[in-house]
Specification:
Number of helices: 17
Strand content: 5-15%
Strand order of the largest sheet: 6-7-8-9-13-12-11-10
Radius of gyration: 25 Å
Distance between the termini: 55 Å
Order of helices and strands: HEEHEEEHHHHHHHHHHHHHHEEEEHEEEE
Structural class: alpha+beta
Number of strands: 13
Largest sheet: 8 strands, antiparallel
Length: about 525
Amino acid sequence: MKYNLLIALGIIISNGLSAQKILSALHPAQKHCEKVYKKLLNSIGDNRKTLPDLLVTERKKRVASYRSKDNVILIEKLAYDICEKMGADSESALAFLIGHELTHYYQKADWGRSGEICHFLLKNEIHKKYSSEDEEADSYSGFISYLAGLRTLEIIPDFLEKIYKGYDFNNKLDEYPDLEERKKVIYIVQRKVRKYIQMYESANYYLAVGWNYRAISCYTYLLEFIKTKELYNNAGVVSLAAAIEHPENDGYSFLYPINIDLSNVFERSYTLEGRQEKLLKDAENYIKKALTLDKSYCTSYINLACVYDLMGNVTDALTTLNMASNLSSNNLEEAKISIIRGIVYAHNNQIQKANEHFETAVQHYKGLPITYVSRRNIQAINKSKKEGVKYNIEIKDQMDGLFFGDKLKRTSGAIPLRNSSILNTEVDFSTKARSYFSRFIIENKLDSKVSYAFIQRSRNKEIKTKRNIKVGDSYSKIKKAYDGMYFQIVHHRNGFFLLYPQKGLVFQLDQQKKLKEWAIFAEY
């Protein structure tokens, strides 16, 4: 950071920062702000060296600001003190300020906006001119704070009241927007961001279940408003996973340990349209966009190696795997790298090397799903075609007394997504007493047929499945309850999904193999 030497001494900076007192780097306010700033950057996945510095100033005028000339985010000490008075929600309040100003950086540096606005609270005439950019900053700040695990979205109205009171803006209404007017905008932002969150959560479940067309529709919609490393990576994964289901090179049926920030898609029945060549090119483009934000992102290198393997580019696949290995931080990543190396060698007819790498993967990581994937891939070398699993679908579970068959209708509140000359797609969400409900609708324009896909997620810890499984239960208890049924394991960075397709059930477990959330899914 270019200002560290100066702020370590706590001196006045006058070169471009208009002679204001900057707090020392060791000051608790400065350290706390930097902590929250790092949380937000981690949630975005941005690891570039061109990001703004963050400083805390004694000035009492603008709450917070971004100075593009100096590439600095400024948080005023008075604003910080107001955040601190919010107790347990202090970091959520700080995240709103910092995220808002960070968005102004992205607007100018990455998103092609004017970059003219730079203050948290704009004066009336400026606010009217740049209201859309300011609303975008509120929305982006709310979403990335959610990704960081903070309650920012819930506390914004109360926080604004405290800011107006602390800065005495209520007595300066000739200069600044009325508090109630500002809160009206925030209520709009809250509704908008909650829809983003619902769409994000649903898209991750769509991908885990294998509904790739639905997943990519949601991810591409979100990327119009919310640009993060994770979303770029996951959009790439959808195209890559679909390409895996369009084999054009050989008869092998390998399982790929595709890395998604939430989940790994190994094997599904995909419906995303397009030739493999186009799907792989789309995957490559999205994954490379994720790498522009973080060149040390091992997950995307693993995914990119899968793309190169399917393209038949052995050299680039192995080179990319070497890069991933150099960046790998745990045994699970090394195991996945070994599996992909085995697949690359198998496609190059080096069967002995392929077997060695599949076995090495299990040595790196002996747990699910690596053991399962490695064994399946060893079997695939000796079988030109895998046998499909047959089962009858029988969904008996319900949440909030909701029966999907009664919801086969369209609503005026649905969000239009990817539309083409053949298909219209839309999705809508609702929050029930004990669950979150999403309905994805696809209309075929050629014959006017409409299909529906539903995901209903638990939001109440006490709600149980028909076999008495609830949040907090162990993996072994779930397996015992559904003993003998066909299941699928889908790994994610914080645990794994356990799917029982014939029951329309998906269980999300954490790293301790405890149930975090469960959901019902079905297609009509």
